[in-house]
Amino acid sequence: MGRSAEVAELELALDDAAAGQARIAFVAGDAGVGKTRLVSEFAARAEARGVRVLSGDCVDLGAGELPYAPVVAVLRSLARDRDPVLEQVPEFVRAELATLLPELGDEASVSARPADESGQGRLFEALLWLLDRLAQDTPALVALEDLHWADQATRAFLAFLGRNLGNERVLVVATYRADELHRRHPLRPLLAELERVNHSRRIELVALTREELSIQLRDLLDGEPDEELVERVFARSEGYPLFVEELVAASADGRGPLPSTLRDALMGRVERLPTRAQAVMRVLAVGQWLDDGLLVDVAELAQAELHDALREGLANHILAIGSEGGYGFRHALLREVVRDDLLPGEHRAIDLRIARALERRVERHGTSPHLAAAIANHFASAGDDPAAFQAAIRAAGEAERVHANGQAAALLERALELFDRVGDAEALAGADRAGILGRAAADHKLEGDSARQEALARAALALIDQRAEPRRAALLLDTLQEAQWHQGHGEESLATLEHALSLLPPEEISAERGTLLWSWAKTMMLRGRHTEAVGIARETLAVADALDDSTLRGRGLNVLGTSLIELGDVDEGASRLREALALATIEGLPREQNSVYINLADSLHLAGRLAEARAVVEEGVARKLRPSWIWLLVLQGELAMEAGEFDRAQDILWSIDRRPTGNSLVNLNLRRAELALGRGEAELARELLDEAARVGAEMDEPQFTAVLGALRGELERREGRLVEARRAVHEALDSFEAMSEEAARRARVSAVGMTIEADVAQRARDLGDAESERHALERADGHLARAEAAAEGNHPLGAAWLLVARAERERAAGRPDPSACGAAAEAWATLGRPYPAAVMRFRQAEALVLHDGDRAAATAVLSEALATASQLGAGWLRGEIEGLVARARLKLATDVDLRPRETAPEGEDPFGLTQRERQVLELVARGATNREIGDQLFMAEKTASVHVSRILAKLGVRSRTEAAGVAHRLGLAA
User: Fold this and answer.
1) pTM to 2 decimal places
2) What is the CATH number of domain 4-204?
């Protein structure tokens, strides 16, 4: 009723999905407004179209959550229907799905899955594969109800879908109560992220109008309602369809006296049931969905009596039969009213009976994450502390098994709250308090909650004697340092690692020492201290070989190979990385494989081997190993940009419509911003860099900070904001440690800094500011020294940036050197980087005009640069070239058309300035204000302002200062 627009919007989303454009739709509204009714109607229509419909509900347990509740419901329905797709899944997918539904695999395959940081990613990839396959022959609709009760693992899966759904023929429809989302509700940030992605939409249901409610009443009463009834029901229901139904159902014929409140209406219906039926309603209010076996066990009724009670509930439209044969309330509001009416002792007694009945079921049939979580929650609600404590520990283990690490951490923290209230807690848990704290910290690590990970690791460390239990302390310290690193506290992280290693003998061969060595080697690599990283990585390999630990060996090889390439030993480093890739492939570790592909390709790129780097990236992208796959896509786009394929880079980088988070978002924004700068899209570049700086504020890795500083510095320089440009470069250089060996990135930042100082010095000379010029040259010398230090050894990119820095140093000194610029251009061209080569050709031509006066040579060089800029679509560079052509009155021998601008005959103004504008420019060059110009030339201040604006446009500059500089250098003003 009154939902035609909403149904139409959902049908449009389904049409998109059927066409191969996956969609997510959120249906929001208050309790009772008709969300379930809308989705049910839409699902029925979709099914009539031949769409495969899958559904699952989130469950409200009050004291806790069931991991993956709606996902398991979907899988169970497929298994129950013996869906043929389940018989076609590859073994690796089946093994992951079996963690949620054991009947889909064997116990050995389930227990063999490693509980590492890629575990949840593997499970999510398996689920995405299944959805894609289910939708091959016909589109699939996945309905997820009551998302406001979603457990943490389900929320994580929904976030994964939001970032990874692409061309799958899938529509996900999720409902949630808008009135349940208080300010700190965990669903809020997820919705904020997902509801703004391109392939999602939000449908908000509102109450029925009076006219719509009148039609609903006519349908319910099978006759025309009188006006008084319409008014009374509308006033009390406020237009909520469910409330209308319940208020009318509370009266025998729908026309008698109505209850004063909805709660009275709902309870009135329950209280009219026989006593035994009411008792069953109370059990279901606590247990939610229970099958016959559990109800017989808990309700303490004979089977015949139980069935009579259930029939009463079904006949009065209070209960419904679930898809798996269990019984529950037709609507959550009915259940909530009955539950809230229970006495505290009554509620606890029912919880206790349900928990014990579930334990007996586990004894007979074995456990599962859902059973374990339900037992823990019911014991907790019943107030049985020892049973709740032990059940929480067991449920945490089950949650960890299915990679629901957020739930596991919550259960362990609940156990910690009960620890002191339970006698012999260590015996019941099989661990002391420090052990539980460490385990919870590890779960928070896998969930990505670094702050909580750090807090729990510190609490665990405070409870143990580190010298007496060095290995145990070492692992806790490793957990602590990782949390510190991910929060951007690099120095603290390093100090923690060094302390952890000091607890273990240097000659010790143990898994703990191997883990610490790998963490240390990786930290050194990320900080750019590659010589140290190589030595530590070799130690890691020695321990890995002694332990016969192939996973540790692969990780050590990854670090070793990356750092060797950074140090100039490219062939040896690439060989080590290929060995690491082979090990990760054998072990079936997709995250590790992608890590190697990324490190190998990026290192080859920075070593000047662009073609090899691109081949590695293409190989990695083709394998579609989802964990970290977005990094490979971004790198693919970056390398296309480096090769001068701006259009391909644009297609790749902007085809990523799944919004990443954290350092993945920073990385994507930096590459998009770099491309925007090349194309001349300054506003877009600024927007992207601002967000990257905000998200990456706590990051101190050169791969982010150096690139951000170089791009920000260049953007500000182009816009004439030289103070801001200097600051960006200074902050980037500050991010480098004194011992950092990030050659290419350090050289790049230094070269950008040099270019900025050349602009500063040039402006200072234009303004006759000798002190500012001297200061700029001093800073330029510092940048040159840094570039020279960075380029030492076998670093082709560092060497190219050094040549740029040397050429810009000459420009800073006021003696632009064409040969120095040409050498830099040749270096970039040799490396297969046409864009920086064209930039330096432009600088070469500028030097030929301004310093040598060789207009013929400048014309030839500019023609080449303009052809490259036009081919690439490098809008900013093309604009700079056109400006120089106009200022120097050159005629290019090129097939590329310039923007309409006639070349002025000798003696005429090349910019088309009128005589009056030349007079205004004279005064601008002296620093006169608009008012002063007006006073001297006898014109209004507003007229002077218009003249100045026209002059800036004709000169192709952005500020009065730049206009003055151009006027001085080209002799347009005295």
Assistant:
1) 0.72
2) 3.40.50.300
